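S2.1 Query sequence (Amino acid permease)
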Amino acid sequence: MSNIKQTAKLGVFTLAIMNVTAVVSLRGLPAEATYGLSSAFYYLFAALVFLIPTSLVAAELAAMFQNKQGGVFRWVGEAYGKRVGFLAIFLQWCESTIWFPTVLTFGAVSIAFIGTDHSHDLLLSSNKFYTLIVVLVIYWGATFISLKGMDWVGKVAKIGGLVGTIIPAALLIILGVIYLASGGHSNLDFHSNFVPDLSKFDNLVLASSIFLFYAGMEMSGVHVSEVDKPAVNYPKAVFIGALVTVTIFVLGTFALGIIIPKDQINLTQSLLVGFDNYFEYLKMSWLSPVIALALAFGVLAGVLTWVAGPSKGVFIVGKAGYLPPFFQKTNKIGVQQNILYVQGIIVTLLSLLFVVMPSVQSFYQILSQLTVLLYLIMYLLMFSAAIALRYKMKDTDRPFRIGKKGNSLIWFIAGLGFLGSLLAFVLSFIPPSQIDTGSNTVWFSVLIIGAIVVVAIPFIIFANRKKSWEDPNSTIEPFHWEENK
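Output structure tokens follow.
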């Protein structure tokens, strides 16, 4: 039996579903529902210029370095050196840290809707202090659980992904079909333009956050060596997964737009309100608390997984001499406790912004945009590194390669991803016209200063690193130019 397990390969369908589960999240659907029919254009556009390029480029890079640790630190570092490689892994960790308050805001709203009084649920979900307390309690609870070991979290995450994402997504789409088939009034104009007015930059801002919907596909690249005939089957799995993901996003967004008028869409509440409205129409309101509980469970399961995940990557790199000994300390079972504590303090400080932002919705949007900016910088580095490595490490074996011969296809695929990421990066600075974000000064200050500070921190740490920081037990292998020396 053991031999069978060792030689078992991931099938195309299995990998495609793994990609869908890793990427799909329903919390962002209301943001795109404000665009009506043209939301489908944004989903398809982002899939073509970001989702598919990310998956293919990550697969080539992961296959190249399948026996070497470091992830994006390795990929970017091999192309541009240790300093920039450290920037890439630091941004990946920092982005996930800033992401916590936004996803937990959605979780807090879901918990508010577990009640049976709809008007009371709405009032509670928009209360800043309720949201702040729930976010901090859940986050620190997840942190303390992760400090005791995360062996069981994988199972919780799988169940959470199914119960909290896949099943609710399918149900939302089915409810929309039943509603229309039974003569329900659609608030979505199916005769409007599919292609939006691209001359209005402020209307593109919310749509630029769609790129983060697809973020994380680079994680699936680590499985490329586990796929039978990767050159053929990996691209198949990518395209199937992308098709399923886009279908869920497009039809799920349409389902929300059908049941909620455009001017009543709220970024944090509308998913729950949409379910409520459908259940009320079908005289099944008793299901509302059930779906709210399922969505909340999905969020909690996802947070448990992410609390320890990216921090583990920056911890492994840190042990190679990139972080002071303070950040390398672990507890008795080897969990990176000090990094988790620092991560928790950052999440707490960000969550306190609830008090100064004019609404929960505006806080949610500005933190989401900052998350997008940081993640996109990492993706810009990743896409350009893939091209650079074709020349710097041209003789290195590539078990999965974009294009059988030459470099024209990698230029096209990685170039498309780079330009798409650059476009989204620029658009992310423009305040959205659909949401009250308060003062434009606060908006630009948080985004610009926030991005500069976060990017500067790893360079400062790198410039001040000491030989004594290096752990003799570090598992990070030398870069190719160090091996050549």
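Confidence is low (pLDDT under 50) at residues 1-7. Residues 69 and 476 are 6 Å apart (CA to CA).
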